[in-house]
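Re: beginner question about structure tokens

> Can someone show what the tokenized structure looks like for a real chain? I only ever see the sequence side.

Sure, here's an example I had lying around. Input first:
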Amino acid sequence: MRKTAIIGLSVCLSLMASLSQAAEKWVQAESPNFIVYSNVNAKATEAYVRNLEKFRYIIGAFYGLSGPDAEPQPRMKLYFLGDRSDLKQVRPRLDSHVAGFVSICAAGTAGFSTYEGEAIASGSKVQNLAENTSQHIFFHEYTHIFMFQNSQTFYPRWFVEGFAEYYGTTKILNDEAVVGMALSWRIRQLSSSGTLTYEDILRDAPSTRRSGSNFYPQSWLLTHWILSDPARREAFRHYLERRSKGEEAVAAFEAAFGVPVKSLSSVLWSYMNSLKATVYRIRDMPDPKITLSPLPASADKLALWDAGSMTCIPRDYRAALLEKVQKEASKYPDEAYAQGVLARAQIQYGDEQKGLDYYQTYTAANPDDAEGFYRLGQTWYLMSLHRLFQPGETFDSQMRKAREAFRKAYTLDPMNASNLNYLARAAKMGPDYPDDNTVNAAYQAHILAPAVRDYAIFAAQLLIRRDRLGEAADVLRPLANDPHGAAAAERLGSIVAAIDAGKSKAEVLDMLKAPAPKPGATDDDEDGKKDDQK
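And the corresponding structure tokens:
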């Protein structure tokens, strides 16, 4: 996992008395490492963001990613929701049993989880060790984001879920963290029907995706067994190496761990009977301060539709979502929030020209707002791409204005991966294309968001053009080893193999040649998006 940073915990606390009433709808909570949008009550929202900051510090500490010398990283965006039906405003076809998910794509990354009510009361240590379902969901979803943000390894799906379950049950008690707790309902699931064979789990068979299967609890138990022992952690590293070289999953597991997979269920059942959580004392546990502010009444509907616009919704839902946003925003013609949601939806899934006047006016009034300049650049870029020219403008002149806006946005916020990706794509074509700045922008976008496939492929293309084929192979290798990448992973694997075999730049570029996904309005189809659900 890549070294990242804990930004200084110094945001001022601002809990206004008026907030309690406004928070019956939507509030925005900001902390050093998170931006959380919530339609849960203000008290619960503030408590969960504080726990998220502490949890981030704890999980980072286990992997050397916490501390004053760590490198900075983007703030995470999360949605803390009062009801599971809220999730369908973002993913209409989502199963009703899903309580949270993470969306990762070129348009943006965000986590969504539901508030299941308080399961504990403040007070004694015993009470605080009680199970809190909603906190578990939130920690689980953040653990996914932590893994995706800090690792270029594409882990097997069972480990992705098992890792999130292992850390998702963490309890924070002052300066102590209880890690690896077993939830009672997960234990009950392990004893119920729906048990899968570990052959199917390791091979990611279709049976593991069926409703009612024990995929989650069995993945958690297997991961717990691995993470609880240094020797098994090392064996897991060897297992991943074997899998990355194409070895069949079951054979790789047996060779790495020395355990026949047909015996694994009994081994894990015995392990479960003696399973223990571990208590860690955390030095310098942060005491984060949270700023909460109410969102306007229009957010009651627009907040989640806005989230959909920025997290790669399915193509067949885009027109309907844009229509709903337009209708709702028309009720608030003078409200900045509603008109901002409308402008973003128009840029992503409608007519980007309609957002131009808005963002020109907005950036003039808000010259220090990085998001505004990023959206202005996006608007000019897409208009150029779609040959929508303002009077007196040309493709080159509009693209130049796009670059100027992206550079301004980068100056104000160097952590916006999407802005960097656009900046690289908007580069001026010519005999020196791509220059160092263009390659660096594309590569940095990939580094900030390593799980976004579009960023990795585009960065690799530019590196290859500059005869940096070895670096391109390193960028593509995790995608090629993605156990869920299907045909896309196989194709990228052949490209990596060609680079390793010493094929020429022209040959590799020809293999990689495909219609380049266009950022924004038309880039994110279902294949370009990574959702992880719980």
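Each token stands for a local structural state, so reading them left to right follows the chain. The longest strand covers residues 108-114.
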